[in-house]
């Protein structure tokens, strides 16, 4: 799994406080245990009025017959995430008679789509990973507004905030099929038990747990630094908690500079982990060669002597844990990203379905992806989180995922979207450039806070045109 970054919006919605409070009040308990779940990938038939668990929801989505129609869907998804999404597409094929082909895209997806469109072979639908990418696709004339049926389905199943971030110029273009809670730290339960470490609630407690794990003979953290987006996520959580939502919004829109003292404070805080000798598996050079999936699997393989005891990232980590022998909730546990300031951070992300070829089949697929029927299929398979409020939480396969989903739905419109997802592509979403590269360089040399700030500001100013 990866989470790509492309050009950003100038809008940040909601408030962090209520979702953070929801989590802190117990949506993620200190010791979450796995429970049995239905792993069936099926989504039911064309009719019906209930989701799993007997909860009354909107009737199953009505789709047109599309026998003989074919369409393509592009996304930068790999591994289990891609395979699970293909099961959702297979159910669409079953219900409509259409043939759907998944097209693997490269990061950044806007560049990939540009090449496909220039070659006269655009996909019918693309999964775009942030609000700004939708805006860019609209500005280029690629994206087509959602039709009446897709818009109706979206309105029935999504809170106003999740609908709003899929709009450009007041028109609905995106269906946020997938969401992410990117404020979680996953840990090897045996490592914590052997070391006598406790789940931390504050940054200072996190540092104490890390030292305890280090003293037990295990490296505390695994960092997938080869993927620059993981480093931006680290920064965003520290910054949101430490500087607060108002500053977060200002920095996201480049209304304050990256040379601001609040950025210095956040980078200095990050250096307490990134710059601590032997706290990161493989050291800085090793982390910079470690891609995100490996950063997860190396935390949960090797018995009680893995390469690291903890790994930071969102709820989608479960997909990669599933590639190991670790059982989520027993061997692999999770706690909310600790509070650095007064409030624990909660950063959200997501992927939206956008129609590029305005056909009956493409609009029907957008309608399908806006339905609880589609989301329920992937929810059952794990490693996925839907902002669709009519997906019954019983569809999620374990207590960890259920609690995360409950918190997301309970938060309604109170969330902060990933900051780098709001930045122009050149700054927040291109491998080897901008924020990704600056933070990779900072991971390599965490003592150079001023140098990192200067580089971040220079790249941001160029990208934002300010």
From TrEMBL:
Tell me where on the tree of life, at the top rank, the source sits.
Bacteria
SUPFAM superfamilies the UniProt entry points to: Periplasmic binding protein-like II (SSF53850)
Instruction: Specify residue ranges for compositional bias: Gly residues.
Output: 42-52
Q: Which InterPro entries match?
A: Bact_solute-bd_prot1, SBP
Q: Which UniProt keywords apply?
A: Signal, Transport
Q: Where is this region: Disordered?
A: 41-63
The UniProt entry, under Pfam families, shows:
SBP_bac_1
Q: Where is the signal peptide?
A: 1-36
- On whether Signal is a keyword of this UniProt record, the answer is yes
Q: Which family does it belong to?
A: Belongs to the bacterial solute-binding protein 1 family.
* Name listed for the protein in its UniProt record: ABC transporter substrate-binding protein
